[in-house]
TrEMBL record:
Keywords: FAD, Flavoprotein, Oxidoreductase. GO terms for molecular function: D-lactate dehydrogenase (cytochrome) activity; D-lactate dehydrogenase (NAD+) activity; FAD binding. This is FAD-linked oxidase. GO terms for biological process: lactate catabolic process.
Amino acid sequence: AIGWEKEMLDVLGETQVLLDRESRDKLSKDYFWYSPVLDRQLKEKVADGIVVPLNEEDVAKALAFAYKHKLPVTVRGAGTGNYGQAVPLFGGIVLDLSKLDSIVEVGDGYARVQCGVRLGALEKHLREQGQELRIYPSTFMKATVGGFVCGGSGGIGSITWGNLWDGNVLEAVVMTMEEQPRRLVVTGPDLLNYIHNYGTNGIVTELKIPISSRNEWMQTVVQFDRFEDAMLFAEALSKDDSVRKRLVCPVEWPIPSYFLPIVKHLKEGAAAVLLETVDGTLDAIEAHAASHNGSVGHIISPSQYRKTIGLSDFSWNHTTLWGLKTDPTITYLQAGFSPVLFMEQIKLVKDTFGDEVLLHFEWARNGGVVTPNALPIVRFTTEERLYEIIEFFESNGIKIFDPHTWVLNDGGRGEFGGMSKRKRENDPLGLLNPGKMNQQS
Ligand code: FAD
């Protein structure tokens, strides 16, 4: 080690500083390679050093050290993000927070955890005590609570509970990037300045999240000859509040053919709706299916929950993952279809692009409105063509949250809640994950 790296070893100790090329390469990457656009731009980026804090004091020490040497700091949870959020664009330090992994407190309706706790481990712990997570990404077995809050949006459970910014974070403990890092306890509307902001406004060390009482979940595949029927069934079930649910995911053929572990249970050529609903709702599902020309197929009973591969492992961006195993040329988009006009919009997309764009939807409650969110799979040819497709979607009222950019403001969330103001206060030298946020004055 030379220069600041040597001093960093002295300040933080050998076990917490990794300088070898292999560790730096591995811990400088996330799942940006789902995007050929990001892959081209990000694959060579690497941190100069990895710091692995064991507690909040270590985080403060690492931040003060980086401030003194004007080193960029990019936070990493589990590195399962898709937009290169956790990739250091300008070298410096990657702060790997996966060792801050204590569950601090579980109360009735809430959990307080360190940021590096994995959502899968937390869900298991909570279910053993009669509670469970409200929302989690399909990567929950690996992903950390901090990474989800700072880099994710929603997922399984969002059909009932909404996304991260719909009241699903109660409190965040945030360390600032200053000569002497401050420890802020953030609650209320100010939380919006830290949710999904890629660690550009502070390092979140601890979180309090709301949780739900435990349910017994049944998983069901309902099959339809026509994708249109699958969509109308999914809408009706999503809006039926008497059926408690975590997942409503209509998938058009041939996407189900990519689901290799369960394909033998699926009907060839048919659209599928993947469901996770509470035990005892089969009659209601059958009734909805019958009125939309569908039939119940594969069922995973509550006793098998998490004992076999679950249906959520084929939903959200896991759908793209299964697609990539069959066809490495595919990529994806993130699209918000109109809750009112989605059938017309789907027809327009299919008439225009055919099998170049394949659709699956994850119904979710966005700000209280039951909405068909989609992560369309796109057969990739060129970047020009990809942006032509994006332009077509947007000009037809389908909102695109571009997953082919690492810039927060370009990903469709835009500026909200005074993020730039917090940035200037908490990170005056602009060292936190630089290049990810276009500041506004
Ligand atoms: P990381 O990737 O490590 O970090 C994410 C961002 O947050 C980075 O910018 C990082 O710098 C920042 N960050 C991490 N920890 C902190 C912290 N403590 N303080 C400040 N900043 C921090 N996302 C969804 O929302 N829903 C889904 O259903 C979903 N499905 C996915 C499926 C697949 C197959 C893949 C590859 C990704 C999917 N994602 C999904 C994206 C991602 O997996 C999740 O958002 C996940 O929660 C990220 O957690 P992580 O610990 O891996 O975060």
